[in-house]
Design brief:
The complex is a heterodimer. Chain A is built from eight helices and twelve strands. Chain A is of the alpha/beta class. Chain A folds into two domains: 123 residues, Rossmann fold (3-Layer(aba) Sandwich); 99 residues, Orthogonal Bundle (Arc Repressor Mutant, subunit A), CATH 1.10.10. In chain A, the strands form three sheets. In chain A, strands 2-1-3-4-5 form a five-stranded parallel β-sheet, sandwiched between helices. In chain A, strands 6-7-8-9 form a four-stranded antiparallel β-sheet, covered by helices on one side. In chain A, helix 6 packs across helix 7. Chain A is globular. Chain A starts with a strand and ends with a strand. By secondary structure, chain B is α+β, with helices and mostly antiparallel strands. Chain B folds into four domains: 155 residues, Beta-Lactamase, CATH 3.30.450; 170 residues, Immunoglobulin-like (Sandwich); 60 residues; 156 residues, 2-Layer Sandwich (Heat Shock Protein 90). In chain B, strands 1, 2, 3, 4, 7, 8 and 9 form a seven-stranded mixed β-sheet that branches. In chain B, strands 19-21-22-24-23 form a five-stranded mixed β-sheet, covered by helices on one side. Classes of the chains: A alpha/beta, B alpha+beta.
C-alpha cells in the first residue's frame, strides 16, 4: 500500500484530503507542522508527499520541508498545495524540485488523478521503455507512460501540469488548443494569465536546450498550437 | 468671477479717496469764496468809509454832488474805456440805451449820449430830421439867409459863466464849434473854438454828430439845443436841453472829480476792480486791475489743468463783488456807491494747488492700493491654484505621490492645505485598503472554501440517498460559483503580476487584433464584429506584450458585449499616425453616465445595473487602463457622436 504524507496546518482540509486518499486505497499520514513531519520522515519516508507552503507559524515552512525531503530522496514525488496562487510561489516551489504546484481550488478528484499519475510515472520509470506510448513530433519525443519529454534526445524537466499541456498540444500538431482545453488536459482550474505563464515557462525550458525553439505558437485570442 | 478680479474691483473702491478729496476741495473752495466775499465786503466798507463825505473827491463840481437824482435834462457821462473816433459813427460807443437822453419836439427828436475818457467829454448826438439843411457854402456863418440846421452847445465854464457854441456845417464831415463874439460897433463874428472838434454824419432820417470837448472848458452844467430848419434861412424850430431864448444851460453835468481815479488807484491790487457810482447807479470812476494776473505760477502742470477742467463747473470761476454805500454824514444821505470786484484768480490758485496735491496723493494711494491688492490676489490665486493642482494630482494609482504644498503656511490657506493633506492621506489609506481588499478577501476565503468543497466531495463519495446527492450537487454548484468569484476578484492582482513579468517584443499589432476578433466571432455568436484596421495585418510592427494587448481587447470586447443588445455590431478600429496607434471599440447601446465617466477606468468602479450571472467587480476597464499604462498609453471613453452608443479608445505610443 502506497503511503502518502499530507503536511497541512488546516485540520479540516487535512482530514478531508486524508479521507479522499484513503478511499482510493492509499495509506495516509497527516502532519500539522514541519517539525512533526520531519521527525516522521526521518523514521520512514512516504511514497508521496503533499505539502502546504505555509505551515502554522512558518509562512515558508513548506519550502524548507521540500528542500529537506528532496535531500533525503531524489525521486520522491512532491506536490505543493497552497492557498496562494501567485507566480513567484509557483516558480520557487518548482525550483525546489517539486513535481507539481497546485492551488487548493483543485478538486479532490483532480488531485487524486495527479497523485495516481505520479505513481504511474514512478512505475513506468522502473520498467523498460514501452514504445507504444511514445509519441514523436520532429525533435520532440514524448513518453506518455513515464511522463517524460525529450527534445533532440535531451530530457526536458517538466512539472506534471506542464507535461500535460505539452502533451495536449503535441498530440494534434497544427490544431489550436484554447486555454480551456489546456486546463482540462492538465486537470487544473486556472485563469488565463496562469495558462499564459505556464506556456511561457514551458517555452523557456525548451529554449534552455535549443535557443531556436518555436514549436509552440500563440494564436492570439484563441490559444496555442504545436507546429513542427 | 475670479478671485483676482474680485479683489481688483475691491481695490477700485479706494478710488472713493480722490472723490472725497474733490468734495473736500470743493468745500474748501466755497469756504474760501465766502471768506473772500467777506473780506472784500470789509475792504469795500473801508474804502467807502474813506470816501465818506468826500463829495469833492467824488464829484467834479460841488453842485453836481446834489444828492437829487438826475433830472430829464441832467447828463451823466458814461465812463468810456477808450476814446471813440470822432467820425460821426456810433461804433465805439456803449450799446446800452439807458445812458441816452432823449428830447423830443413833435416829430423831431434829439438823443444825447455823453461819455468821459481821460480829460475829455465825448458827446454823441442823434437828431431826427426829415429835412436836413446845411449852411450855404461860402456864406458868413452869421448870415441868417445862409443858415441851415444848427446845433447849440451851452454850458457853464469852470468859473460859472454861461458859454454858448454853435455847430453848423455845409456838408457831412469834420465840424468845428464856433462861438459868437461881439466886436466893436456891435458887429458880431463867429470865432472857431479849436479845442472842440467833431464830425457830422448823415444817417437814415437825420444826422449824427460826434464831439469832443475838453473837460477843462466845462463847469457844472451842459446842454444841447437844435435849431431845426426846414429850409435854408427859414425860421428855426428850436428844442433841446438849453433854454430856448437865453441858451442857458440848466441841465447838470454830473462828473466825477478828476482826482477820484487816482485816489482809488492807491487802494487797488491786481485782480481787483473798484467802481464808484452815483446813488442812482451812474458810473463816476473806475479803476480796473482785474486782468492783471495775480499769480503767474498758478497754471503749471497738465495734471493741475486737467483736475481743474474736471472740477470747475460753469460760472464758478467768475467774480466776487461787494457793494458799499458812500455816505455824507453831514447831509445824512448817500452820495454814491462803491463796488469792489475781485477775480477768482486771487484765490483759485490756492484751491488748485491744494486740489492738485490732494488728488495726486489720493490717486497715488489708490493706485498703490489697487496694485497691492491685485498682487495679493494674484499671489493668493496662485497659491490656491497650486493647492488645487496638487490636490487633483496628489492621489494616483500608486498612492499619495506628491508632497502637498502650503502645508507650512500659517494662514487659513495653510489650514486648508493641512486638512487636505490629512484628508488625502486618509483617502489614500482607504483606497489602498480597498485595492488590496479583493485580493486579501480572495485569499482568506480560499481556505474555508477549500474545506467546504473537499468536504462536499468526500460526502459525495460517501454516497447518501438520492435526495442527499441533489443537495450535495447544489452545494457544489454554489461552491464552484464562489470559486469563480474568487478568481474574478483576484484578476487585477494577477494582471498586475503579469504586467510585472511581461516581456516586450516586436509583433504585428493588426494581425494580433484581427486574430483576436476572429475568436470573438465564435465566442460571442450573438454579436457581429466589424473591423476597420487602417494599417492592415502585417503593416504595423508594434513593440509591446501581445498577450496583454489581447487581454486589453478582451476586456473592451467583454464590456462592449455586456452593454450592447443581441445582434448588434461591435466595431474594432485601429488607426495609426507617426507617433501613436489608437485602438477603438464601439458598441451600440446606452451612452455613458456623465457622472461616472471620469471614474470608468478606476479599480472597483462599475456603473452596470443589470442582473448578470457572472461576477463583476468593475475591474475590466481598470485592467484595460493598467495594460495601456504599461505600454505608456492612455485610455478614454465617450459617447458616439450620434448618441447611439459608446466608444472606448486606447492610445498607445509607437
Amino acid at each position: 500500500m502506497k503511503l502518502i504524507a499530507i503536511v497541512e496546518d488546516e485540520p479540516a482540509i487535512r482530514d478531508n484530503y486524508a479521507a479522499a486518499f484513503k478511499r482510493e486505497g492509499y495509506a495516509v499520514r497527516i502532519y500539522g507542522t514541519r517539525k512533526e513531519a520531519l521527525a516522521a520522515f526521518a523514521a520512514r519516508l512516504p511514497d508521496l508527499a503533499v505539502i502546504d507552503i505555509s505551515l502554522g507559524e512558518e509562512p515558508e515552512g513548506g519550502y524548507e520541508l521540500c528542500r529537506a525531503l528532496r535531500s533525503m530522496s531524489a525521486e520522491l514525488p512532491i506536490i505543493f498545495l497552497t492557498a496562494r496562487d501567485s507566480e513567484i510561489d509557483a516558480v520557487s516551489g518548482l525550483r525546489l524540485g517539486a513535481d507539481d504546484f497546485l492551488t487548493k481550488d483543485l478538486s479532490l478528484a483532480h488531485l487524486i488523478a495527479r497523485v495516481n499519475a505520479l505513481f504511474r510515472r514512478i512505475e513506468a520509470l522502473r520498467k523498460p521503455h514501452a514504445e507504444a506510448q511514445i509519441m514523436r513530433r520532429g525533435a520532440l519525443t514524448l513518453d506518455a507512460e513515464r511522463m517524460q519529454v525529450e527534445w533532440d534526445g535531451q530530457v526536458v524537466l517538466l512539472s506534471l501540469t506542464e507535461f500535460w499541456i505539452v502533451h495536449a498540444l503535441a498530440h494534434h500538431p497544427g490544431h489550436v488548443k484554447n486555454r480551456q482545453q489546456l486546463m482540462d488536459a492538465a486537470n487544473v482550474v486556472l485563469d488565463d494569465n496562469t495558462i499564459t505563464s505556464h506556456v511561457k515557462r514551458i517555452r523557456r525550458k525548451f529554449q534552455a536546450l535549443d535557443a531556436k525553439f518555436d514549436a509552440i505558437q500563440t494564436v492570439y485570442g484563441m490559444g496555442y498550437r504545436w507546429v513542427e | 468671477m475670479s478671485l483676482r478680479l474680485k479683489l481688483l474691483l475691491l481695490g477700485l473702491a479706494t478710488l472713493v479717496l480722490p472723490w472725497a478729496g474733490c468734495q473736500y476741495a470743493l468745500e474748501m473752495e466755497s469756504a474760501l469764496r465766502e471768506g473772500e466775499q467777506q473780506s472784500l465786503a470789509a475792504t469795500a466798507q473801508t474804502l467807502a468809509a474813506a470816501l465818506q463825505g468826500r463829495t469833492d473827491l467824488l464829484y467834479r463840481d460841488a453842485e453836481g454832488s446834489d444828492a437829487a437824482p438826475p433830472g430829464p435834462i441832467d447828463l451823466q457821462p458814461v465812463l468810456l474805456s477808450a476814446a471813440p473816433y470822432l467820425d460821426g459813427y456810433a461804433d465805439e460807443w456803449p450799446r446800452s440805451s439807458s445812458a441816452w437822453r432823449t428830447v423830443a419836439s413833435g416829430r423831431r427828436q434829439l438823443r444825447i449820449l455823453t461819455g468821459v475818457h481821460e480829460r475829455w467829454l465825448y458827446v454823441l448826438l442823434e437828431v431826427r430830421d426829415d429835412h436836413v439843411v446845411f449852411d450855404a457854402a461860402g456864406a458868413d456863418a452869421l448870415d441868417p439867409a445862409g443858415l441851415g440846421d444848427r446845433v447849440w452847445l451851452g454850458f457853464e465854464d469852470p468859473s460859472g459863466s454861461d458859454r454858448q457854441l454853435f455847430i453848423g456845417t455845409t456838408g457831412p464831415g469834420p465840424v468845428r464849434a464856433r462861438r459868437i463874439e461881439g466886436r466893436e460897433l456891435g458887429r458880431q463874428v463867429a470865432v472857431d473854438e479849436p479845442r472842440i472838434s467833431g464830425a457830422w454824419q448823415l444817417i437814415a432820417g437825420g444826422y449824427r454828430i460826434g464831439l469832443r470837448v475838453p473837460l477843462s472848458l466845462l463847469g457844472g452844467r451842459f446842454g444841447v439845443l437844435i435849431d431845426d430848419r426846414d429850409e435854408r434861412g427859414g425860421a428855426p424850430e428850436s428844442y433841446g436841453t438849453l433854454d430856448r431864448d437865453t441858451l442857458h444851460a440848466s441841465g447838470r453835468l454830473i462828473l466825477a472829480s478828476p482826482e477820484l481815479a487816482a485816489y482809488l488807484a492807491q487802494f487797488i491790487q491786481p485782480g481787483m476792480r473798484v467802481t464808484v457810482t452815483t446813488p442812482a447807479g451812474g458810473a463816476l470812476g473806475e479803476v480796473d486791475a482785474l486782468s492783471v494776473p495775480a499769480d503767474a505760477g498758478s497754471d503749471r502742470g497738465i495734471l493741475a489743468r486737467l483736475y481743474r477742467r474736471l472740477l470747475d463747473q460753469a460760472g464758478t470761476r467768475g467774480l466776487v463783488e461787494a457793494d458799499a454805500p458812500i455816505t455824507d454824514t453831514d447831509r445824512g444821505a448817500a452820495i454814491g456807491t462803491l463796488r469792489l470786484t475781485q477775480t477768482a484768480a486771487r484765490w483759485l490758485p490756492l484751491r488748485d494747488r491744494a486740489l492738485t496735491k490732494l488728488l495726486n496723493l489720493t490717486l497715488l494711494t489708490s493706485g498703490a492700493a489697487v496694485v497691492v491688492m491685485f498682487a495679493f490676489a494674484a499671489w493668493l490665486a496662485y497659491r490656491l491654484d497650486r493647492l488645487r493642482r496638487a490636490s487633483e494630482s496628489a492621489l494616483t494609482r500608486e498612492g499619495l505621490v506628491t508632497t502637498f504644498p502650503e502645508t507650512g503656511s500659517r494662514d487659513e490657506l495653510g489650514d486648508v492645505a493641512r486638512s487636505f493633506a490629512t484628508l488625502l492621506s486618509r483617502l489614500n489609506e482607504y483606497t489602498g485598503y480597498l485595492r488590496t481588499l479583493a485580493g486579501k478577501l480572495a485569499h482568506e476565503i480560499r481556505t474555508p472554501l477549500t474545506i467546504v468543497r473537499s468536504s462536499l466531495e468526500n460526502l459525495e463519495s460517501e454516497a447518501g440517498s438520492a435526495g442527499a446527492r441533489t443537495y450535495i450537487a447544489r452545494a457544489r454548484e454554489g461552491s464552484e460559483r464562489l470559486s469563480a468569484i474568487l478568481v474574478a476578484m483576484g484578476a487585477a492582482t494577477r494582471v498586475e503580476e503579469a504586467i510585472g513579468s511581461a516581456e516586450r517584443q516586436r509583433f504585428d499589432l493588426a494581425g494580433v487584433i484581427a486574430s483576436a476578433v476572429d475568436s470573438y466571432r465564435t465566442a460571442f455568436a450573438a454579436r457581429r464584429f466589424a473591423t476597420e484596421l487602417a494599417p492592415g495585418p502585417g503593416a504595423l510592427e508594434f513593440t509591446g506584450a501581445p498577450e496583454l494587448i489581447v487581454q486589453l481587447l478582451d476586456k473592451l470586447i467583454d464590456n462592449a458585449v455586456d452593454f450592447s443588445p443581441p445582434g448588434a455590431t461591435i466595431t474594432v478600429r485601429l488607426t495609426a499616425d507617426l507617433t501613436s496607434v489608437t485602438l477603438e471599440v464601439e458598441n451600440p447601446g446606452p451612452t455613458l453616465a456623465p457622472e461616472g465617466r471620469a471614474r470608468l477606468f478606476e479599480s472597483l468602479w462599475q456603473s452596470r445595473s443589470g442582473a448578470d450571472s457572472r461576477p463583476h467587480f468593475g475591474l475590466g476597464l481598470y485592467i484595460v487602463r493598467l495594460i495601456a499604462e504599461f505600454h505608456g498609453g492612455s485610455v478614454a471613453a465617450g459617447d458616439l457622436p450620434d448618441g447611439s452608443g459608446a466608444r472606448f479608445s486606447v492610445r498607445l505610443p509607437r
